[in-house]
Amino acid sequence: MPNLSPLVAGTWRLHEQGWSAAERLRWIERCTDLGVTSFDHADLYGGYTVEALFGEALALRPALRERLQLVSKCGIRLPGHARGAARIKHYDSSAAHIRASVEHSLRALRTDRLDLLLLHRPDPLLDAAEVADAVAALQREGKILAFGVSNFGPQAFELLDAATPLVTNQIELHPLRREPLHDGTLDALQRRGRRPMVWSPLAGGRLLAGDESPAAQRVRWVLGALGAQLGVAPATVAYAWLLRHPTHPRPVVGTMREAGLQQALAALSLRLDAEAWTEIWQAGAGQEVA
């Protein structure tokens, strides 16, 4: 596994911020100064625009690249874009597509390497041997340093890991989506000693506001009560809930202002006990543990 930071800065909504290149650079620098040196991309973010926005900012201070770890994902093709000319949205794990995506990401990010490449979604047509050969060639050329997957279940992970070592699985996990805790996904990672990455750790913000479903309201109340008891923000408790798992997940923190980033960072020094962790689990599940 590349030496990623404990928290990873997500770039999915970078194009929505309306920032100039200089403002984007200031965001990258501030994250880095706070110890968040890893940045999570995907080729298709922002309709294939976000990597170029990041690269434009990084070009204002090229030396900063040596302090960063750049992660990107590939394997989904979108229609309506000149790149790839897909007729419908579909998965593509072919060697040709993986290579084309990596070459595009390197140009857009203005870098000579990706520290970590992830296959974005499990492809029903995935040929594990073909993927392994493509990854090996890109690694020999120094264009990717490590390889992993995103959103893979335990069996799909095992299939590809047998063909080429996977250093991580980036999954969705939060108190409103607890399936990876119980479907073998995290068990498989713990057995192999692989640290997961976690996207949408706050359920897209629904843990804190906006979602009035009974489960979200229960979780929000418990996060607030525990936060008041521990003297931290509810978001900090939500991140600490993830970090408590023995696989030592790396949450992907959204493109946010510094206050939100500080709340995430505070979770690194907060360890929930089993009762507090279970209280949050129960709030999401709407029932006691059996």
Automatic annotation (TrEMBL):
It comes from the Bacteria. It holds the Pfam family Aldo_ket_red. Residues 6-281 form the NADP-dependent oxidoreductase domain. One of its GO terms (cellular component) is cytosol. This is Oxidoreductase.
